Each structure stands twice: as C-alpha cells, then as structure tokens.
Amino acid sequence: MIIENVAIIGVGLIGGSFALALKENYLAKNIIGVDTNDKNIEKALELGLINESLSLEDAVKKSSLIFLAIPVDATVTIIKKLMGLITPEHIVADAGSTKLAMCKVLEDHPLRKRFVATHPMWGTEHSGPEAAVSGAFKGKACVICDKENSDPDAVETMEFIYKKIGMHLVYMNAQAHDLHAAYVSHISHITSFALANTVLEKEREDDAIFELASGGFESTVRLAKSNAAMWVPIFKQNKENVLDVLNEHIMQLKKFKSCLEKDNFEYLQELIEDANKIQRIIK
Amino acid sequence: MIIENVAIIGVGLIGGSFALALKENYLAKNIIGVDTNDKNIEKALELGLINESLSLEDAVKKSSLIFLAIPVDATVTIIKKLMGLITPEHIVADAGSTKLAMCKVLEDHPLRKRFVATHPMWGTEHSGPEAAVSGAFKGKACVICDKENSDPDAVETMEFIYKKIGMHLVYMNAQAHDLHAAYVSHISHITSFALANTVLEKEREDDAIFELASGGFESTVRLAKSNAAMWVPIFKQNKENVLDVLNEHIMQLKKFKSCLEKDNFEYLQELIEDANKIQRIIK
C-alpha cells in the first residue's frame, strides 16, 4: 500500500518525524504540510520532511489521509472545521497525548467513523521540524482508542501504517488511555519540571550544577526542557488523572521526608527496596 | 607513572570500574581486591577486574595506594582501622558520595594528610562487579575536597590518576560538596524512588506500564533501580542538605498541583517556562 497524498497538520517534532517514517517505509508518495507557523513550513520544506505546503482546505481536497500532530487544545479546536471539509472517503487520525477530550468533541459527528484516535507513544524533549528524526517510532507502543467507533477500513489503514513504521499496537478506550498516560508519561514531566525549578531555585551557583551534574541528574531533568505550548494543554485536558497521580507522588515524597526527619532509616531502606521493584517492569 | 600495587576496598560498580580504568590507562601493574563479600571477589577475579585478593592488612602492606569504594557508612567505620595500618608513604583516597562525615572522622588523625577526599562523579543504577564498565569516568567531574588537608604529593598522585582516566577536576570544601551533591545527585534519586513507588502504587496493571512506558518515563525512573545499601547511608550522612532540597522540591510540586486545582494555566505555563531554563545548564 502506498498513499498518493498525505496531509500532515503540524510539521513539528511528531509531524515531521511521522513524515520521515512514511517516506522511509514507502507509505506515502507526496506529503503535504499544513502549519500556521510559516517558519515551520519553510524549515520542513528545506529539510525535505514535506513535499509541498497547502492551506487546510486545499490539503484536505488533495489528500486521502490527514494526520494531526499539533498541541491537544489546537486539535480539539480545529477538528470540527476539519471534519466539515472531509468526505466519507477520507481518513483522519491524530497523535495527541490525551484522547478523551477529542473523542468527546466528535461523539455525535456524522463522519466520526472516519476518525481514528491514536497515540504513538514516542517523543523527545525537543520541538519543531528541526527536532524531527528518522526511525523515531520504532519499537514503541501505539495506542488505538475506541476502535469500535471508527470504520474498519480506517482502523486497518492506521494499523498497517503504525506496524510498518515499527510500532506495536495496544487497544483501550479513551478514558483508560488518559489514566495510564498520566501514570507513565504526564507525571514524569511534572516531576522533571519541578525538579528543574527546585535546582534552579536552590542552586544559585550555575557553575556548580554545570560542573557536577552527572548522568543521573541529566536523565531525571531532561524532560524539563519540554515545550510549554504542548504540555499545558495536555495537563489541562487530563487534569483529574494528573492531579490524582500528583497527589500520590507528593505523598510518596513525604514518606521519604518523614524517614529523614525521624531518622527512620529502616523504613527508608524499605521504601527504596519497594522502588527497586520497578526493575520488574523497566529493564 | 605506573603504580606497582593498588588496593581497592570494595570491588563493586565503582571499585571495579576504577580497577578497569587503572589497567586500561597503564596506571597500575597489580590490583589487589579487598571485599567482605566472597562472591564479589570471585566475580571480580573471574572478570579480570583484580589480579588477586588479600585481607585488608596484607593488601595495605603490599600496596602504596589504597582506594575505598564501599558504601559511605562502611567507609567511615573502616577508615580508622585502615589509617592505623598505613605508613606515611601510603596514599588513601575514597570515592564516596558524601564527604563531610569522612573528613570529620579523620580531622585529628596524625596521618590525615595521607588521605585525599575525592568524589569521582560517575555511577549507574546497577551494582556489583558485574556492573563495572570500561571507560566509565571519561568526561565526568571529579571533586577533590579540602585539598589543603592532604599532602601535596598525595593530591598530585590522585589528580594525575583522575585526569589520566579522563576526568576534569573541581575543588571545594567538604561542606560545599555535600550541599551541591544534594542538589545535583541525591534529590534526583529521591524523586526517582518516589516516582517508582507512585506508579507501582497507582498502576496495578503492570502490563499497561510495560506496554506504554516511553523513553520519558524510563529516564525519570531509571535511578529507582539504585541499590539501597549504597543510598541509605548517603541520605543519612547528608540528611540536612537532602531535607532542605526535598522540602523545596515538594513546594515546587505543590505549585503545579495548585495550578491544576485552580485552573490557573497561565501560571502553569510560567512554571514550565521557568523549568525550561535548565537548558542553559544541561545541554
């Protein structure tokens, strides 16, 4: 299967990397970039991520697959307009990190079944078309949500593409997705942002951090470079789940604090040994 | 300079990697392992990390440089016995992640000047001789503390070795070291342990974590695999500094919590943009 024309809305880190993956796996002939940011379009053309740039209307007319890779608040805003432009032959998929808000917005749309809610779980702390990388999604999970609300041919096309670019598929409903995403992705970003702010607040001597920061610090604080325009809408849409996990995380940190304050090093040892059990899951 | 005999107390991750670095850089002819754990000695011999194994007494007699790479509570316990065995020709150095407790214990020792307090800032979440790797310390910082309390020849020898194995040297007093280490290393471990416990507590469906955990989660939780026997004594010795940073970190997390609870997404954006400033420091 090779698709003549694919439109990618948002040619940043994810859109750009997806474009590369389509080309590298001979899945698309012509990639049309749509982006409100002219500089992104210019850069994406220059880097060869996209073949041409069109307006949303013209891109929809020309393509059969439309892939959304913009912040989740923008996706929810643009999707209704987009769904008004498509025919029952189009397939629309998105790559957003939250799925429930999107699925709710489309709930009663007459063409809902042409939309496939997906979350290819890959990303880096960088953003923009310059951040796009080749081979990006390989070996990672892609979640497909509420499969039964999409037409089988649309789901099959997206399954084919994601498998071809090296992803394994996981199925769940949008609500379960947002809950799990809070645990395995969103909370990591909050702890990393907060850790960066802690160190920047307390450690006035930048030179000392720079000189001493070891691999451990770098890996826990790496995500703190992530883009606010992408993450604020994610936290907003997934507020309840994120708050729930964040409350638990603060409680866990308070256990460490209490051990130190009370010189309870036996319990501290237990807490660390409990944490070590993550080895079962993360090799 | 090539040292005939070096004794390494503790042939685990750090001791084993240091042994490899000495050999690879032609800094030592014969490496003597000392370890209370027979299995570690066996493994270290089998892996070729050490050439022979001796008792502490015999190892001191035979060697001119003694390098301590055991948990920081064990170091503080063993150091007085060790200092009673050495002559004014020996050099003793340690690799511990805390420095103040060690320096205080030796404060009034007649041979204090033969001891060099060092912290080569490298490590992984793994432990034991099997975890030792070649080229481990390259490009990392090594802190030398309270240099003026050691004999110049002893300091020069350690400087020569650390530079030769690829480290750059940073000088500060033991108190400043422990403070900075709390910011750039110890707090990262606490957040990672607590994050692992958060997720293990909340996410009962192990399969979901396993399937979905992306690079971001893995990097923030990687340190949670670290060894309790190594980390409890570090947190114990550096309690005041760690508590100070931990309190600040909990406060920073509460800011995120409050933004979400109050739907204050403008301030959330600000917090994330503040965190992004870590890019200045961590490339």
Q: What report would you give on this structure?
A:
Two copies of one chain form a homodimer. Chain A is of the alpha/beta class and 283 residues long. The model of chain A has no long low-confidence stretch (mean pLDDT 94). Chain A has an eight-stranded mixed beta sheet with strand order 3-2-1-4-5-6-7-8, with helices on both faces. Chain A has twelve helices and eight strands. The longest helix of chain A has 29 residues, at 174-202. The two termini of chain A are 35 Å apart. Chain A has helices spanning 13-24, 38-46, 56-62, 72-85, 100-106, 152-164, 174-202, 206-212, 215-221, 228-237, 239-261, 265-276, and strands at residues 3-9, 28-34, 52-53, 65-68, 91-94, 115-120, 141-145, 168-172. Chain A has two domains: 3-172, NAD(P)-binding Rossmann-like Domain (Rossmann fold), CATH 3.40.50; 177-280, 6-phosphogluconate dehydrogenase C-terminal like domain (6-phosphogluconate dehydrogenase C-terminal fold). The interface between A and B is large, with 93 and 92 residues.
How are the SSEs ordered, and which strands pair?
The structure is a homodimer of 283-residue chains.
Chain A: E1 3-9, H1 13-24, E2 28-34, H2 38-46, E3 52-53, H3 56-62, E4 65-68, H4 72-85, E5 91-94, H5 100-106, E6 115-120, E7 141-145, H6 152-164, E8 168-172, H7 174-202, H8 206-212, H9 215-221, H10 228-237, H11 239-261, H12 265-276
Helix pairs in contact in A: 4-5, 7-11, 11-12
How would you summarize what this structure contains?
2 copies of one chain form a homodimer. The first copy, chain A, is an alpha/beta fold.
